[in-house]
Amino acid sequence: MILVSLAALLAACAGRSATRGQITGADAPPGATLAGSYSVNGVDPIGTEYGGNLTIRPGDRPDEYKLQWIITGSIQEGIGRLDGNRLQVEWQTAAGMQPASGVTTYTVTTKGELYGPRSVRGFPKEGEERAFPNPK
After folding, report:
1. Domain that holds residue 90
2. Is residue 16's pLDDT more than 80?
3. In this structure, how many other beta carbons lie within 10 angstroms of the beta carbon of residue 27?
4. 99 lies in a domain?
5. Would you state the torsion angle of the CA atoms of residues 18, 44, 36, 38, taken in this order, to the nearest 10 degrees?
6. How many distinct structural domains can be found in the chain?
7. What does 61-129 look like in DSSP terms, one character per residue?
8. Whole-prediction pTM value?
9. Residue 56 phi/psi, 5° resolution?
10. How many CB atoms lie within 10 A of CB 131?
11. For 68-76, what is the mean pLDDT?
12. What is the spatial distance between Cα 18 and Cα 39, in angstroms, rounded to a whole number?
């Protein structure tokens, strides 16, 4: 029984890894917005997993967004610019937090999910982050 459960768990994980590279993005339809609340999970550049919430609001210019992450141990804020199905974000920790900053380049999927590499200045490797829209 334990072996069957372990085999099922490994198969599920293997399936998740196999489909990871097959996620495709698409240009956002005219009038679409990324504004909303998202659940986030990721792995930082040193391999530590984290989770939390991401809020995206419209920015001051067309195709610009303001982002705020509340994740394990940190609050981060950023400004992003949407180009096709790519959201390029410069981020930094909020005032009063240990200083950190970097870049995130999300691909926007046809389901409105966001995924992509996340860099932290001063680290040679990138992490990876995924954000899933919360139901409205």
Report:
1. 79-107+121-136
2. no
3. 13
4. yes
5. 60
6. 1
7. STTEEEEEEEETTEEEEEEEEEETTEEEEEEEEPTTSPP-EEEEEEEEBTTS-EEEEE--TT-SS-EEE
8. 0.77
9. -120, 130
10. 28
11. 93
12. 22
Phi, then psi, of 121 in degrees rounded to 5: -55, 135
Q: Is 126 inside a domain boundary? A: yes
**Residue 87 in contact with residue 106, Cβ under 8 Å?**
yes
Task: Give the per-residue pLDDT at 18.
Answer: 30
Q: What are the tokens at 126?
A: 């990138």
pLDDT at 8: 31
* Residue 56, beta-bridge partner list: 36, 67
What's the whole-number mean pLDDT along residues 113-124?
96
Q: How confident is the model at residue 19 (pLDDT cuts 50, 70, 90)?
A: very low
Residue 6 belongs to some domain of the structure: no
The Cα 102–Cα 87 span in angstroms is: 14
> Which of 68, 67, 64, 83 shows the shortest CA–CA distance to 25?
83
Q: Would residue 49 count as lying in a domain?
A: no
CA distance 39 to 91: 17
